[in-house]
Design goal:
Elements: H1 3-15, E1 47-49, E2 55-58, E3 74-76, H2 99-105, H3 115-121, H4 134-151, H5 196-206, H6 216-219, H7 221-234, H8 243-248, H9 253-261, H10 271-288
Antiparallel strand pairs: 1-2, 2-3
Helix pairs in contact: 3-7, 4-10, 5-7
Length: 298
């Protein structure tokens, strides 16, 4: 034991009788793990969520030492299920959908569409599912996931299935052309991003050269999710508002459908497709425990 460690251990013992004591926790009890607090007396087995969003387990008694300072007192703790907080707890990113809820929404999804990829992508769009009340935040998350679920057959398809369409998505009137090839800009990812101009716009926004490297959208889960969130948060498409604006400003789920497919589905264009999206949204809102709100249809 180093001199510093010995000093801290002695200090912890000396302070033990003067500070409140935390209740020991079971090894994987992250679902109820409290936030770390300086000045709380911890005993071996206590699990806390630190300010960095990660979990730590006490190895030796201490009076609330910073968990990142010494592995003598604390060790990083990974809970069951793979996520820092386990599949039933909110992700440290603050996303309102837990991994367990995500799994419930998409039981047959492709392994490509990972929860971790989604939560990693959230940092590029800090307003998404973090605007308004807790109900509004969950409604927006449910709406986005309902629409991308519809677009991909329940997050099953990573790329567009009709290969005959692939050469059609190159608009050579654009000054930058199609440097990745005539048939390189087919639908990919949760929103099925297509056309060379959309790959360029999304890439410019994200700081990624997707015009020359469109395959990143089908090879990197976080990039795929970023493109879906890019469209949702920045593009109104054939509608009058973005999906994000529709859900946080009272437009309703129906307006998010319009921003994706406009009259192809709305105003009687394809009622069955609209109903499929509404069914997804209704189910996901129930999973998250919130009402759907008004204006479900377009």
């Amino acid at each position: 034991m180093s001199a510093l460690t010995g000093f801290l251990a002695a200090a912890g013992l000396a302070a033990a009788s003067l500070l409140p004591t935390a209740t020991p926790a079971a090894a994987d009890e992250c679902t109820t793990a409290p936030s770390w607090r300086a000045g709380t007396n911890y005993v071996p087995g206590n699990i806390v969520r630190f300010t960095d969003g990660n979990f730590y387990i006490a190895e030796h008694a201490n009076p609330g030492y910073d968990p990142t300072i010494s592995t003598w007192f604390w060790n990083p703790h990974t809970c069951s299920g793979g996520n820092p907080g386990g599949p039933g707890t909110p992700d440290p990113s603050g996303f309102v959908v837990t991994q367990a809820q995500f799994n419930q929404m998409f039981p047959g999804r492709s392994s490509f569409y990972t929860y971790q990829g989604l939560t990693t992508a959230l940092s590029s769009f800090p307003a998404f599912a973090k605007t308004g009340s807790d109900t509004v935040r969950k409604q927006e998350a449910a709406a986005f996931l309902a629409n991308v679920g519809h677009e991909t057959g329940g997050l099953y398809h990573v790329v567009e299935q009709n290969t005959a369409n692939y050469p059609h998505y190159c608009d050579r009137t654009q000054p930058y052309g199609c440097p990745a090839g005539q048939a390189a800009y087919y639908g990919r990812g949760p929103i099925q991003l297509s056309w060379n101009f959309n790959y360029k716009a999304a890439g410019d926004h994200l700081g990624i050269d997707l015009l020359r490297n469109p395959s990143r959208v089908q090879n990197e889960p976080a990039v795929a999710w970023q493109t879906g969130l890019w469209y949702w948060n920045t593009q109104s498409g054939p509608g009058t508002m973005t999906g994000h604006s529709a859900m946080v400003n009272g437009g309703g789920f129906g307006q998010s459908i319009r921003s994706i497919n406009g009259s192809l589905e709305c105003n009687g264009g394809n009622p069955a497709q609209v109903q499929s999206r509404v069914n997804n949204y209704t189910r996901f809102a129930q999973i998250l425990g919130v009402p759907t709100g008004a204006n479900l249809y377009c």
